[in-house]
Amino acid sequence: MAIFSSQSDSLAAIATASLSIIRQQLLDLFCQSAYREGDFVLSSGQRSTYYINGKQVTLHPQGALMVGRILLAMLPEEAQAVAGLTLGADPIVMAVSVVGAYEKRAIAPLIVRKEAKGHGTQAYIEGLTLPAGTPVVVLEDVVTTGQSALKAVERLRLAGYQVEQVISLVDRQQGGAELYQEKGLQFQAVFTIAEIQQRWRELS
């Protein structure tokens, strides 16, 4: 299935299409642009026969809009902000916030640094300073072991925010979901790696 054709037509179509259609288009974009097979070393240090570069989707014009629409619909009603560990989550939290603004839902985007800022306020979290107890959902592009999003959760909680949920675009099914369950976090993924691999074979 081809991604929506011309740039202007596709953006208009994504803005109004049903979420089921958007999800299928997003799956195809992952297969066409982000998924590769070969010999790779992941950020966790594990070796893998495949690799998913989520930024090929989240930094794609149509991809960002699709991601924003899908993830916004998955947020609980009480969520007031979305956050994630830089760099992978940066375009995702912005996409959700911008789409939320167009859909008349105010969702603040927060970026969690891996290390404290070396100057000025030396902050770990960039974005609006929200009241203590604000409900925040952590977003991720690809979850493997789950450690990246967990680090974001811990930093946000130390800052006084209420964080109970992690949502990822892709679950590699390599321990992340189990880690979140162990830590008492709710976890959802738009796609599992099995679903992406099956669709990739269909398109190949």
Automatic annotation (TrEMBL):
<feature type="binding site">
    <location>
        <position position="144"/>
    </location>
    <ligand>
        <name>orotate</name>
    </ligand>
</feature>
<feature type="binding site">
    <location>
        <position position="117"/>
    </location>
    <ligand>
        <name>5-phospho-alpha-D-ribose 1-diphosphate</name>
    </ligand>
</feature>
<comment type="similarity">
    <text>Belongs to the purine/pyrimidine phosphoribosyltransferase family. PyrE subfamily.</text>
</comment>
<keyword id="KW-0665">Pyrimidine biosynthesis</keyword>
<keyword id="KW-0460">Magnesium</keyword>
<keyword id="KW-0328">Glycosyltransferase</keyword>
<dbReference type="InterPro" id="IPR023031">
    <property type="entry name" value="OPRT"/>
</dbReference>
<feature type="binding site">
    <location>
        <position position="119"/>
    </location>
    <ligand>
        <name>5-phospho-alpha-D-ribose 1-diphosphate</name>
    </ligand>
</feature>
<feature type="binding site" description="in other chain">
    <location>
        <begin position="140"/>
        <end position="148"/>
    </location>
    <ligand>
        <name>5-phospho-alpha-D-ribose 1-diphosphate</name>
    </ligand>
</feature>
<dbReference type="InterPro" id="IPR000836">
    <property type="entry name" value="PRTase_dom"/>
</dbReference>
<comment type="pathway">
    <text>Pyrimidine metabolism; UMP biosynthesis via de novo pathway; UMP from orotate: step 1/2.</text>
</comment>
<keyword id="KW-0808">Transferase</keyword>
<feature type="binding site">
    <location>
        <position position="113"/>
    </location>
    <ligand>
        <name>5-phospho-alpha-D-ribose 1-diphosphate</name>
    </ligand>
</feature>
<dbReference type="GO" id="GO:0004588">
    <property type="term" value="F:orotate phosphoribosyltransferase activity"/>
</dbReference>
<feature type="binding site" description="in other chain">
    <location>
        <position position="114"/>
    </location>
    <ligand>
        <name>5-phospho-alpha-D-ribose 1-diphosphate</name>
    </ligand>
</feature>
<comment type="subunit">
    <text>Homodimer.</text>
</comment>
<dbReference type="InterPro" id="IPR004467">
    <property type="entry name" value="Or_phspho_trans_dom"/>
</dbReference>
<dbReference type="InterPro" id="IPR029057">
    <property type="entry name" value="PRTase-like"/>
</dbReference>
<feature type="binding site">
    <location>
        <position position="172"/>
    </location>
    <ligand>
        <name>orotate</name>
    </ligand>
</feature>
<comment type="function">
    <text>Catalyzes the transfer of a ribosyl phosphate group from 5-phosphoribose 1-diphosphate to orotate, leading to the formation of orotidine monophosphate (OMP).</text>
</comment>
<protein>
    <recommendedName>
        <fullName>Orotate phosphoribosyltransferase</fullName>
        <ecNumber>2.4.2.10</ecNumber>
    </recommendedName>
</protein>
